[in-house]
Amino acid sequence: MSQLSKNNEFGRVFAEAAAVHKQLLTAFEQECAGPLEKAGQMLIDCLEAGGCIFTCGNGGSAADAQHVAAEIVGRFRRNRKGLPAVALTADTSILTSVGNDYGFEEVFSRQVEALVRKGDILWAFSTSGKSPNILKAVQTAKAKGALVLSFTGRKHSPLETLSDVCLCLEGPTASVQEIHQLAYHILCDWVEAHFAGQL
Asked: 19 in a domain, yes or no?
């Protein structure tokens, strides 16, 4: 038997996570239902108008950005037409060349400058709400007439201030990211139901 099993470490970790999630879900229901509904409508309106969803984030949030783009382009639960989404985190040649030539702060904003159009959405993930490369991308998107949807883990952050819709939930970073995943799955489900004619 492993030391983890002897000490019931798995059980303790799951119990602690469940307790944090319960607190966060209560806060989510109270504070995020409105922004979540606005985000869903904003995504649907953008896609209906022929726009594209661009996503970005750092670290674990980069994985979330790619996860969202995959759900939109591919599918979440239903068969329906592919929808346009691009994860700005996924092209290593662009990320490394821009980072090398211009600095890491520019890795997303340079892509926004090149690809994003008026009416598109930049969906930014930053649990701190103050990542310089995310903020620069958001500023560039706003200057081009795009809308900004953000997921953060800190209230009153610079990212929240710049966003058209911000889903903000404070808590431990890992737990916030786990709740963010539930939230973006809800949004992907709504978008998909709409385009499958089920909403």
From this structure: no
pLDDT per residue as tens digits for the range 87-139: 999 999 999 999 999 999 999 999 999 999 999 999 999 999 999 999 999 99
Q: Which residues contact 160 (CB under 8 A, 6 or more apart)?
A: 129, 150, 152, 154, 166, 168
How many Å apart are CA 175 and CA 183, to the nearest integer?
A: 12
Count of domains for the chain: 1
Q: Are the beta carbons of 188 and 77 closer than 8 angstroms?
A: no
Give me 80's structure tokens: 């329906």
Rounded Cα distance between 55 and 77, Å, is 20
- The token pair at 2 is 């492993």
Residue 23 in any domain: the answer is no
| Rounded distance between C-alpha atoms, residue 52 and residue 44, angstroms | 10
**What are the residues facing 151 on neighbouring strands?**
125, 167
pTM: 0.88
* Residues with Cβ within 8 Å of residue 108, at least 6 apart in sequence: 56, 88, 89, 133, 134, 136, 137
pLDDT tens digits, residue range 19-76?
766 776 776 677 777 889 999 999 999 999 999 999 999 999 999 999 999 999 999 9
